[in-house]
Design brief:
522 residues, mainly alpha, 22 helices, 84% helix
Length: 522
């Protein structure tokens, strides 16, 4: 259980940093929403910012987790410090060359890229021109955020989580400050993102220097461990690219205003940011903290400890994400109106975004569990299977979006994404279950059913309380207070229902909070 305690401690550090970043991200999004609504400037920002986020996923959540962390962790255990830092420099130099080329091409090809991922903008020349201009200005941020993600991977392999966890906060602070300084112009958005990228990278460099890193230009890319990283990275890059193409599919369909209505791209963005709040705080933190542990356990002759850690990750994810998913479904309207509505974010913007949030919430558990399952595949150095399943998810997403956007408009895109996610997550679980002979699957099933029952019961409580005390017509502070009361009462009811339905994860979590240890299973 000391392993679980270590994972929880690491996840707690990452989670605190992510929580701080998400709160600041919420403030950033509220500022953007109230200044721009879901109209032209907001849509231009969403599309322009998607492209560097694509590569952040490649390097930060893709290569760092799937290839860099497991290889760096193993290399650090088996080789000297000098050899470890030599490898770190070789990989960094390779990244610098690749990223510089991508940034140059991105700036040159921005008009083509924007037309590909937002074809609906072609019908509005002004919106198209704004988006292309903003994309070209923001594109160098890609280099900064990818280098910051590389530093995060290196520090995580050294079991240092604090500074990398809090570094993304600097981006949000920067955007908030510059957007407010420049008011409703896009110059504030662009400047804030670029300055934030510099800060996010710069915050981690002193820590790396203290750990022993010294920048050296070593153009020897034939290092054995570097080759292993490239081999592991290729399928994960494919998997990440498919996931991001999946995300772009939503934007492509959302840009078709004639079919789905005006403001679809921005509505999808703001709703997805709400979804990412619980996912980022807990799921990203847990999967990131679990990966080094799973990587070490995968090297053992048997997979008994790996099974236990995977079961722990899946059950704890269900315990947190299922009630969050139900709450977001039931309270989609109050959440959007309380947080965003005001200024340019009018009642139409709130209606569009709340409908999207409702249907996105169905797929939250799939996204969360996939992160844990993928971490286990990565620890086993199997990065091709998640890539194949991601491709299946992409095909399903395109099919469901095309089918559902006509009857449900923009909400059909969110529902299509959720359905494809649930199907692909199920396939991933079935394959992994066979691969490692997952003996703990039974307790995961039982835990899921009990947590689902407690979450659904909590949903009814939230629904009736919101009907009784919430009004979208009141002032912002009153809406926020009412929403806070509903959330607190909902959380209390969830705890009560967990006790009634015998959800053991509540006792486990309380045991750790009280004694700083995970209780033994009965």
């Amino acid at each position: 259980m000391s392993t679980h305690r270590s994972v929880i401690k690491s996840a707690g550090i990452i989670g605190l940093g992510t929580l701080t970043s998400r709160i600041l991200g919420f403030i950033r999004d509220v500022v953007i929403a109230r200044l721009f609504g879901v109209y032209s400037y907001a849509q231009a920002f969403v599309i322009a910012f998607k492209i560097p986020n694509l590569f952040r996923d490649f390097v930060g959540e893709g290569a760092a987790n799937a290839a860099l962390v497991p290889v760096f962790s193993e290399y650090r255990q088996k080789h000297s410090k000098e050899e470890f830092w030599e490898l770190a420099n070789i990989v960094l130099n390779l990244f610098l060359v690749i990223l510089a080329v991508i940034v140059l091409l991105g700036v040159i090809l921005a008009p083509l890229v924007v037309r590909m991922i937002a074809p609906g903008f072609i019908e509005d020349p002004e919106k198209l021109a704004i988006t292309i201009k903003l994309t070209r200005i923001i594109f160098p941020y890609l280099l900064l955020v990818c280098l910051a993600a590389y530093c995060t991977a290196l520090l995580n392999s050294l079991k240092h989580f604090a500074v990398p966890a809090f570094a993304p906060c600097l981006l949000n602070v920067s955007v908030i400050i510059f957007v407010l300084l420049f008011n409703s112009g896009i110059r504030g958005l662009a400047t804030g993102i670029l300055v934030g990228g510099f800060l996010q990278l710069g915050a981690q460099i002193p820590v790396l220097y203290k750990k022993g890193f010294r920048l050296r230009f070593l153009w020897r890319f034939k290092h054995p461990a570097a080759r292993l990283i490239r081999r592991l990275m290729l399928p994960r890059l494919l998997s990440s690219s498919i996931y991001q193409v999946n995300n772009f599919v939503d934007s492509i369909f959302g840009s078709l205003a004639r079919i789905v209505g005006e403001g679809g791209v921005a509505g999808l963005y703001f709703a997805y940011r709400i979804i990412l709040f619980p996912l980022g705080i807990f799921t990203h933190s847990l999967s990131q903290a679990l990966l080094p542990t799973l990587s070490a356990q995968a090297l053992l002759e048997t997979h008994d400890k790996l099974n236990q850690s995977l079961s722990f990750g899946l059950r704890m994810t269900s315990f947190v994400i299922l009630p969050a998913s139900v709450a977001l479904m039931v309270l989609s309207g109050p959440i959007i109106s309380a947080i965003f509505q005001g200024g340019m974010f009018d009642s139409y913007s709130a209606m569009v975004t709340s409908r999207i949030l409702f249907f996105y919430s169905f797929g939250m558990i799939a996204y969360a569990q996939k992160r844990i399952l993928q971490s286990c595949f990565f620890a086993l150095k199997d990065t091709w299977t998640p890539a194949k399943i991601a491709f299946i998810a992409l095909v399903l997403n395109v099919a469901f979006n095309a089918l559902l956007m006509f009857p449900l408009k923009i909400a059909g895109i969110a529902l299509g994404t959720s359905i494809s996610g649930l199907i692909s997550c199920t396939i991933l679980f079935v394959i992994l279950k066979k691969k490692i002979r997952f003996s703990s699957a039974g307790e995961v099933y039982i835990s899921f059913i009990r947590i689902l029952a407690a979450s659904a019961s909590m949903g009814f409580v939230c629904y009736f309380i919101s009907r009784a005390i919430y009004s979208a017509q009141g002032p912002t502070y009153l809406r926020l207070v009412s929403l806070g009361v509903i959330v607190i009462l909902g959380l209390f009811s969830y705890i009560v229902f967990c006790l009634l339905f015998g959800v053991r994860e509540l006792r486990q979590l309380w045991g750790w909070i009280k004694k700083r240890e995970i209780p033994h299973e009965d």
